[in-house]
Design goal:
CATH class: Mainly Alpha
Radius of gyration: 13 Å
Distance between the termini: 22 Å
CATH architecture: Up-down Bundle
Shape: globular
Helix content: over 70%
Strand content: under 5%
Structural class: mainly alpha
Number of domains: 1
Number of helices: 6
Number of strands: 0
Order of helices and strands: HHHHHH
CATH topology: Methyl-coenzyme M Reductase, Chain B, domain 2
Largest sheet: none
């Protein structure tokens, strides 16, 4: 269930979470400049969540062994959302905007 996934994700992601977060961090750094300088609004959360979610989905499609390594859809969704929230939190310096990116990532994952 989701409880186990939340508990075990950190131990079983095999650097996938790190890779997605670093991709998002580099994207945000190139687009907004230094840490904490991005605007703290829904547009920023949407931009970062969309970019990093699409990158993650492309990676999952391009490298099927990553899908096999992560044992369930809830783990993949959690990893993608955590990377988006981390990226957005660093870029904006704001936890509420990071939470918006988390929810946006979940919505993007669900819709498609």
């Amino acid at each position: 269930g989701v409880g186990f996934t939340q508990y075990a994700t950190a131990a079983y992601t095999n650097d996938v979470l790190d890779d997605f977060t670093y991709y998002g961090y580099e994207y945000a750094l190139n687009k907004f400049g230094e840490d904490g300088s991005a605007t703290k609004d829904l547009a920023t959360a949407t931009d970062l969540a969309t970019e990093v979610t699409l990158n993650a989905k492309e990676c999952y499609e391009e490298y099927p062994t990553v899908l096999e390594d992560q044992f369930g859809g809830s783990q993949r969704a959690g990893v993608m959302a955590a990377a988006r929230a981390s990226t957005t939190g660093i870029a904006t310096g704001n936890a509420q905007v990071a939470l918006l990116a988390w929810y946006m990532s979940m919505y993007l994952h669900k819709e498609g």
